[in-house]
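Dear colleagues,

I hope this message finds you well. In preparation for our joint manuscript, I am sending the RWD domain-containing protein 2B (Hypsizygus marmoreus) sequence together with its predicted structure, so that both groups work from identical material. I would be grateful if you could confirm receipt.
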Amino acid sequence: MDVQTLKKQLEEFQLIRCSLLPGEIFTFLEDTDLWNELLEIYETNAILGSTPTSPAQIQVTLEAAKISFRVEVPTRYTGNLSEWPPSFSLKGENMTRIEQAQWHRIIEEKLQELSDTEYPIFQLLSVHLLPLLHEEIESHTQPPAVEQNHQDHGATSPPYHALLTSHHLISSNKRRSLQNWSASLSITGFAKVGYPGVIYAQGHKENVEEFVANIKAMQWLALRVRFVEPLEVEMQRDGCQRTWSEFQKVGEVVEEMRRLGREQFIVEMGIGSAGTK
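The corresponding structure tokens are as follows:
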């Protein structure tokens, strides 16, 4: 393995390790001390000395699921899947053959989609497989129950709005819960599904706070409450949204917030841009 190839592989390993969330663990399976030392040298921009003679074998584990994805990386791999493709496998406690076959099919399908990307191992693990694994865990989690009879705060409670983001929003359970809560709490707004997940809600103060609390009670990947705050008077006159909607694209989110006169809240968070179509 030449030094440039080694640097390319270490760069991708660094991307994977830096992208992991709590409960996700990156390890080298073979020549552990050597590869950890090489990665540490690379991260400090020091000069790489000797290069390994055996392929790197890495493992990424999600502790909550007790499932690990393993990758054997050819010594000549530089990101091109057609020339020197990595070998992928998985290991899990109490995993059936059917489940293993399903995951292998997912891996094969995603690799075809990633054939032209610069960091396919990173993309496969961090953008596709780990989020799917989180979704599988979430699908077995019962959403918190919501009280159906709520006090009418219309005359006394000030209008509030809230913005939340997450790594993704795919789960049908979550989407159904958002719709149910928006109806029972008289919340208007939208959810942007896919990657990333974006949730915007408007309503009376107590209802918005309860809506946000319900969302936080569920399991999420990288959920961030951007703000929960009073809606300024001039913005109360902008737009007349009276429903809960779902969007598929970031551009739709920006356009909707522009229609409501609140585009800056999205753009300032780095979600889309003023010129997004």
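For the figure legend, we might mention the following. Residues 169 and 194 are 5 Å apart (CA to CA). The domain at 3-139 is CATH 3.10.110 (Ubiquitin Conjugating Enzyme).

With kind regards,
E.M.
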